Amino acid sequence: IPQYKVAILEADAFVLEVLDAIGFHGQNMAESLSGASGYSLETRDRLIEAHEVRNRIVQDPGFSLTLEEASITLGHFREFLDEADLI
Predict the structure, then answer these.
(1) 60, exposed or middle or buried, with CB in 10 Å at 0-12, 13-18, 19+?
(2) Cβ–Cβ contacts within 10 Å for residue 83, how many?
(3) What is the pTM of this model?
(4) From the centroid of its chain, how far is CA 21?
């Protein structure tokens, strides 16, 4: 797996830990974000998009991802982490 795919997998796992730490509990990202439905999480849609990329990496061994796409995906995780500092 190219390093940027690994970075996405690790960022997704870290974001799930952060969600749990700030009170959005769930067994997976979807459950955690559904718990956030009563809270205005500005980066929610971008976080879902980034998580979908993570799922494609895990579920499809032939999934191809450019460096630019990886940068955008990692940027979505970063935006959430920036927002989490404000919670």
Answers:
(1) exposed
(2) 15
(3) 0.88
(4) 15
- The closest alpha carbon to 84, from 30, 31, 14, 28, belongs to 14
Residue 36 in tokens: 């956030």
Contact assessment for residue 83 and residue 19, using Cβ atoms and an 8 Å cutoff: no
- What digits encode the pLDDT tens for the residues 60-86? 989 999 999 999 999 999 999 999 885
**Rounded Cα–Cα distance for residues 2 and 43 (Å):** 26
Q: Are 33 and 48 in contact (CB under 8 A)?
A: yes
* Beta strand spans in 1-87 (E): none
